[in-house]
Amino acid sequence: MGFQILTxxxxxxxxxxIELTIPGAATGIVPFTPEGHEDRVGTFLNxxxxxxxxxxxxxxxxxxxxxxxGPPERQP
Length: 76
Description:
Number of strands: 3
Radius of gyration: 15 Å
Number of domains: 1
Strand order of the largest sheet: 1-2-3
Distance between the termini: 27 Å
């Protein structure tokens, strides 16, 4: 999805601390799984993203193999 790895290091004997940057943004993302929630890895992500050119971004990411449950829909 275009993220860049900022940090990837050991966090504990069982986990790594990974920070991803978003090119051109002042924010980033840390995909952290609390102990005891390992069964949730890869199951869902509750987030919102603001982008310019939503339809263009959808097409570009789809072409790169990112899977969506459906195309973007306008909502009231």
